[in-house]
Structure formats: structure tokens, C-alpha cells
Amino acid sequence: MKRFFDPRQLAHAPLKELHNGGFTDFAEKPMRAEAILAAIGGADLPADHGEAAISAVHDAGYLDFLKTGPARWAAAGRPGDVIGYIWPIARRRPLKLDRIDALAGRYSLDASTPLTAETWDAAYWSAQSVLSALDAVLAGDHAAFALCRPPGHHAGADYLGGYCYLNTAAIAAQAARDAGAKRVAILDIDYHHGNGTQDIFWTRSDVFYASIHADPATDYPFFWGHADETGEGHGAGTTLNLPLAQGADLAAFRAAQTAALDAIARFGPDLLIVSFGADTWEGDPISFFRLATADYTTLARDIAGRGWPTVIAMEGGYAIEALGANVTSLLAGF
Ligand code: Q9C
Ligand code: ZN
């Protein structure tokens, strides 16, 4: 299977995140990508597709914030990485504010996703990696892997969050539509609900979003991913959320995934995008499911058995010592 990664994706390395009331070392470390790369035996460089496919999903003001935010933060005399600390909750008017502090709140979901001077370039190449994986699948490969890092599924059209800046799965889904695919499905099997992906396609009938994740009653991102969220307008019925209780093992996860695949089959996609997080692994330091390394091959075989051309985009997974083996196990099933 073709695999894509650009070394420029490593340059993004925020120092700290706000976690459970204190600043801890940023969990989404460059070493994650290095561990995966070593385990899969390297990857090809993506082609540069430019910014059009990114702008097709993300808001122009938000992209400008990603590019210029760090310099504006420094110009305001702030040390460290850009981190929002005030958010415009729903009752506030949309204001055209220019202050970097206001922009950091306007364009972010949480305080665990710092923006650094290297972030834009790394996220840009993460998006190019998924676009190159899509190229391979559109050219006839049955599956391709994009080592996306930073990850993508928590990023919305106009906000960062959950270690994500550009929504790689959404960028690939939209690019597939623009390349002529009539219907695209996204299967999100990261431990966390992909709130950004859900938001982006919430009112769309041409992109189906199915997610299996820890119940947002107990887990991040709390405000998205509940079972009664099914889409609205033209998108009514094209979002499927299957939350599972903490402690879920292969039997529970596989049953939910089969239900998701059955729903996707009824939708009838031309192409599937898998948002894959290895944070469902039993030893993940910030997550609480109980999948074993070998289970990823089982889950991947179930997906591959449906026969849809498949782009796999890397999302989370924070147990660096097991990350390479977990990704290798998943790819073995395709
Ligand atoms: N104390 C991904 O897996 N941190 N993002 C939650 C809880 C955010 C994970 C803090 C977790 C985001 C791509
Ligand atoms: Zn996750």
C-alpha cells in the first residue's frame, strides 16, 4: 500500500497543553510520526497540490489566523505559543476583532492546541499527504495511507482544537467530490468524536459521517458526538454517532463498526475515508478503550471486506511505544 508523509510535518512541536487543570507536555509529539514511519518502513513524499483543496473546506479568515497568528502573538509581547483563553460563547455578536487574543478565542475550540510559527507548514504538508493518498486511490489503488500529523478530525471549517488545525479527512472528502466522486463516506474510528468533520458535513447529503468514539458524556469533546446528532437539512440522516462506554473491547467496538459499515453500505459511497486513531489501544495514556494491537487487523479486514476504495488518514494515538505496531496491524488488514 502506498504511504505518504513529508518531514516538514515534524516541525510543529508545541511545548505545553492545558490538561486537567495544569500545563503538561504536549501529547501530540513529533516522535509519534517518527515511530509510525519506522514501523511502516518509510513513506513517499506527497505532491504539492497547493492551497485550493484546503480553502475548499476551511474559512479564509481562519487560514489567515493560522499563518499570521504566531507573529501577531509575538508582536503583542507574548512569550510561548498562541493559546486562546477567552471564547465567544453563542450569545455574543459576531465581531470583526483584530486583537490576537480575540482571534485565538474566535478560531479555537480548546486550550490544548497551541499554534506555533511552524504549525501552518506542518499542517499544510499533513493535508498534502492525504491529498496524495487520495490521488493513489483515485488512480486505482484499493487503499492508501496518509501519515497525517498534525491530525485533523477536531478542526472545523473555522476553528482548531484537539491537536488539529486542518481537517485532513474533510479535505480529502471534498477533494474526492471535486474530482467526480458522487458520494463519499468517512468512518471515524479515533477514540474521540470527530466534531470538526461532523460540523463540516452536518448539512451535506453527499458526504456521510459515521463515528465510533468514547461517550461524550464522559470524554472530550463533550459537546458533540451524542447518539441523537444525525445531521440537519439536506444532511438529515447522513451523520451517525455510535458512542461507547469507557472500557469498550474488541467485541463492543467491532459490533459498532459493523453497524457503521452497514449504514455506509446503505448510503452507497464511491469512496471511503477512514479517520484512524490508535488511541483506542488499551495502553493509551489519555484514553480508555481496550483494543489490543492484533484487533486493528480484525477491524481493518471488516472494513476492507466491503470493497470500497479507501483512504486512511492518521488521527490520534499517544502511546508512542505501541503506535508503530498498532498502525502496522491496521494496514495489514487492507
Ligand atoms: N483532559 C486526537 O486524538 N485533550 N485528539 C483532552 C482532557 C484533547 C485528542 C484533555 C484530546 C484531543 C486527534
Ligand atoms: Zn483521539
Automatic annotation (TrEMBL):
Matching Pfam families: Hist_deacetyl
Q: Report which superkingdom the organism of origin falls in.
A: Bacteria
Could you tell me which InterPro entries the record lists for this protein? Answer: HDACs (IPR000286), His_deacetylse_dom (IPR023801), His_deacetylse_dom_sf (IPR037138), Ureohydrolase_dom_sf (IPR023696)
UniProt keywords (A-Z) are: Hydrolase, Metal-binding, Zinc
Histone deacetylase domain residues are: 29-332
Concerning Gene3D superfamilies, the annotation shows: Histone deacetylase domain (3.40.800.20)
Per its Swiss-Prot or TrEMBL entry, what cofactor is needed? Answer: Zn(2+)
Record family assignment:
Belongs to the histone deacetylase family.
This chain's protein is named Histone deacetylase family protein
- Per the UniProt entry, what species is this protein from, by scientific name? Sphingomonas oligophenolica
